[in-house]
Design brief:
180 residues; alpha/beta; Rossmann fold; 7-stranded parallel sheet; 6 helices; 7 strands
Length: 180
């Protein structure tokens, strides 16, 4: 891919208890596509809602932005209908990322990967290998509430999203177009 102004791949981590981590990753995806790149966005926790705005948006970019859902993580299997493709498990998604997807894109986003690390669904050694063995021009974005130190050390950019003020989870009514 001959992206305008492309220098080399980086690893970005968006973490913390605040909202906006996935939205930040979507922003980077849009910039990548605007410069002629290809994006693979893997939703490792869900989907939890029937129609994700970013998945619908991705469809408008055709093969330049692929969205991948995880069947075992979807709240309802029909929620995967808008995704470009799906795989059965989180482990399968990580294997696909290591062996295939890294070589088909300029930006690989692993949304909520730190959640899966905390649950024990995947091993940190696999994620480190993915980062360390990626092609030199491929960037990776990792998101999730809490990032282990070995991933922070490998990242070029780490941004922490704080929960300064947001509605309490119990009272929160998710808004279509804003929250999903």
């Amino acid at each position: 891919m001959d992206m305008e102004g492309k220098v080399g791949g980086q690893v970005a981590v968006f973490t913390g208890p605040g909202k906006g981590k996935t939205t930040a990753a979507v922003g980077i995806a849009l910039r990548t596509i605007a410069r002629g790149g290809k994006v693979i966005f893997v939703y490792l926790k869900g989907p939890q809602h029937p129609v994700l705005g970013e998945v619908r948006t991705a469809a408008a970019f055709g093969s330049n932005w692929r969205t991948i859902g995880i069947k075992s993580e979807a709240k309802d299997i029909s929620y995967l209908d808008d995704f470009s493709e799906s795989v059965d498990t989180v482990k399968e998604a990580l294997t696909m990322a290591q062996t295939i997807w890294l070589y088909e894109c300029d930006l690989l986003i692993l949304d909520n990967i730190t959640y899966q690390l905390a649950c024990g669904s995947i091993d940190i050694a696999q994620v480190i290998a993915l980062i360390d063995n990626r092609p030199p021009n491929v960037s990776i974005v990792l998101t999730g509430p809490s990032v282990p130190e070995p991933l922070i050390k490998r990242a070029d950019l780490v941004t922490e999203f704080l929960k300064i003020k947001q509605p309490p989870n119990a009272d929160m009514h998710l808004r279509r177009g804003i929250d999903f």
